[in-house]
Write a sequence for this structure.
């Protein structure tokens, strides 16, 4: 069974959610619950950054959630950015086309300013 | 001797025309094509010889007539059904032999059949060769039985060229199509798995076997039906009309199968394919495509499959996803 650690830092309408571990059937619901809670708190023109540096695996359900996070934030005139994803995660997100709607950056600084 | 030569020349006409149609390009496989054709001809002559020998031997020694024995187990009454039972046996053995030709060619040279089209080509070639061999025997026999009646043999030539040769092509084509499907079982089952079908532990072997059995059985049924129809007498030649219709229906069915995009795919042999992305990443992508497919988001499936194919052109599962999604979009 996989494990996931989720840490959230918020400052000036920028919310950084750091993920450590794997997103599979056993952890994806915990992930989505926490991210939706952050989105709920977002005001207009906020930014949610998913720090994926220590995420080693994500399943298809989590990809679906990412797309939904994007839509919900967009309805609040806010942004979702994916930062520092590992190569295998980048490959997956690139092929399924998430990178065409959600910006992906290699650093957190880039993610804060894009 | 002259009649034998004329028989061979008559048999060559539809064989050359159909071979030229199907083997449009001359390529390095020409020797194999010729070998398959020769093999098909020889098996036709062998199996016809067997059929003639079977009838003659069982006339002399009825205890050797195992079709009658098998038939009596099923139904000791209704004598004419023995005739039908024998036709079933003869037609089925011809189709099984033609299947074996494709199977043997594939086992010896797996690189020759990498597309559904290749499978069809070899299957049809086997059917064509079989019909060619059969025609030589029938025309020579026709001359022999009628002491050189050209008109009789010409009528036989027209009937066999238009009907029987086409029949053999259609029946062999059906076997070849399902053989092609069975050959790419691993990838087809992968698609089924990712689109939510539950697969048994031995699903792969079962799928391969069942596809082959289905194709061969269907061809046997169609061939048997045709043989029965040409051998019985109905008012106003209705039997011949039905015989022609059966070939036409088989041809339409084959075209419907091939019109599905999966019929046009080019596959690399699955066990020789090495992807560029790691398997766990690929599985996530398949899983996502499967979810999108189940949600009827076929355009999205096509986009993802194309992106995957741009990175892994030989990915059979991606090709199947793309083909199936395109089929759905076209409906």
């Amino acid at each position: 069974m996989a494990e996931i650690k989720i840490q959230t830092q918020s400052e000036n309408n920028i919310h950084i959610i750091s993920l450590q571990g794997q997103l599979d059937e056993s952890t994806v619901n915990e992930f989505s619950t926490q991210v939706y809670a952050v989105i709920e708190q977002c005001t207009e023109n906020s930014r949610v950054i998913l720090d994926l540096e220590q995420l080693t695996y994500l399943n298809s359900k989590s990809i679906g959630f990412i797309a939904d996070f994007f839509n919900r934030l967009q309805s609040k005139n806010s942004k979702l950015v994916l930062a520092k994803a590992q190569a295998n995660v980048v490959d997956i997100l690139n092929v399924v086309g998430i990178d065409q709607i959600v910006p992906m950056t290699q650093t957190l600084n880039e993610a804060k300013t894009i | 001797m002259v009649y034998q030569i004329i028989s061979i020349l008559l048999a060559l006409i539809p064989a050359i025309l159909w071979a030229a149609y199907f083997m449009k390009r001359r390529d390095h496989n020409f020797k194999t094509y010729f070998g398959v054709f020769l093999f098909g001809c020889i098996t036709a002559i062998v199996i016809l010889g067997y059929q003639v020998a079977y009838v003659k031997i069982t006339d002399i020694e009825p205890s050797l007539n195992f079709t009658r024995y098998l038939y009596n187990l099923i139904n000791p009454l209704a004598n004419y059904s023995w005739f039908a039972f024998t036709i079933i046996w003869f037609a089925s053995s011809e189709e099984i032999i033609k299947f074996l030709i494709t199977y043997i060619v594939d086992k010896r040279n797996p690189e020759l059949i990498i597309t559904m089209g290749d499978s069809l080509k070899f299957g049809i070639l086997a059917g064509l060769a079989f019909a060619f061999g059969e025609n030589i025997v029938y025309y020579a026999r026709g001359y022999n039985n009628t002491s050189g009646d050209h008109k009789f043999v010409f009528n036989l030539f027209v009937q066999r060229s238009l009907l029987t040769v086409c029949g053999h092509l259609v029946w062999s084509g059906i076997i070849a199509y399902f053989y092609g499907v069975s050959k790419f079982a691993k990838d087809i089952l992968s698609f089924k798995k990712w689109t939510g079908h539950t697969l048994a532990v031995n699903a792969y072997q079962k799928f391969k076997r069942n596809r082959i059995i289905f194709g061969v059985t269907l061809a046997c049924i169609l061939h048997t039906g045709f043989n029965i129809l040409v051998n019985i007498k109905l008012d106003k030649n209705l039997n011949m009309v039905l015989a022609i219709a059966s070939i036409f229906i088989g041809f339409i069915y084959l075209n419907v199968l091939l019109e599905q995009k999966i019929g046009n795919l080019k596959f690399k042999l699955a066990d020789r394919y090495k992807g560029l992305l790691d398997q766990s990443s690929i599985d996530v992508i398949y899983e996502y495509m499967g979810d999108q497919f189940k949600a009827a988001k076929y355009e999205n499936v096509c986009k993802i499959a194309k992106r995957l194919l741009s990175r892994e052109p030989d990915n059979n599962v991606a090709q199947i996803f793309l083909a199936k999604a395109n089929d759905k979009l076209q409906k």
Notes: Chain B touches chain A at residues 277-278, 280-281, 284-285, 287-291, 300, 303-304, 307-308, 311 (CB under 8 Å). Residues 273-330 of chain B form one domain. The first helix of chain B runs from residue 2 to 22. The radius of gyration of chain B is 23 Å.
